[in-house]
Amino acid sequence: MTIDQRQTSAPRLLRDHPLAGSLPFVRGWLRNPVGVGLPFPSSPWTARRLARAALDAAIAGAGPVLELGAGTGAVTEALIDQGCPLERIVAVERDAELCRSLETRFPGLQVVQGDALELGRLAGVMPSSLGVVLSGLPMRAIAADAAARCYSTAFQLMPSGGSIIQYTYGLRPPVDPQTAALKLEATFVAREWRNFPPMGIWRYSRAG
Q1: Which of 28, 50, 87, 135 makes a 20 to 30 Å CA pair with 171?
Q2: Which domains are seen in the chain, by residue range?
Q3: In the 3-class helix/strand/coil scheme, how is 78-145 assigned residue by residue?
Q4: What is the DSSP-derived secondary structure letter of residue 172?
Q5: What are phi and psi of 41, to 5 degrees?
Q6: For the whole model, what pTM was predicted?
């Protein structure tokens, strides 16, 4: 299916889908289908599971949660609901409209507009140390070298023992942990069957 075909069918899909209530997210998908992935925000069940996985993996006192590809803030809200203070969350989002939506929805949230795949270019506007990274980027649709570069930079921003929580629609880890530049361990955390489509959650850490 081409991008044009997906754009044409999007309104019908959105009308039929119970989670499709966010126009900013939909418009973001229409502007950049590959970068966003699917035109639906994460389900509440998935958002809660992701938030729990990130908070369980966070290094105490190391820094905030960095959320890559925050979208409309479904996972951001789940982080807050599970006890993460707003000031301990940094949301990175490429789409300008979604950034404005996040700032309106969560007054005081640190929102960084930029390409989450190019974390090195955003270092000047982010904390120098992070407790955990939570990635909503569609890594299966991203070139392997770009994904590896993003992960490498993310681990440089965390102390030893840092983790990346990544969710994906596939059955395998979306970023190859054996990539020469990374040498990671990928641990399967959970699968949320109530998401559409079902969502797998993975935890990446440095090998050894």
Answers
A1: 28
A2: 44-206 (3.40.50.150)
A3: HHHHCCCCHHHEEEEECCHHHHHHHHHHCCCCEEEECCHHHHHHHHHHCCCCCCEEEECCCHHHCCHH
A4: S
A5: -65, 160
A6: 0.80
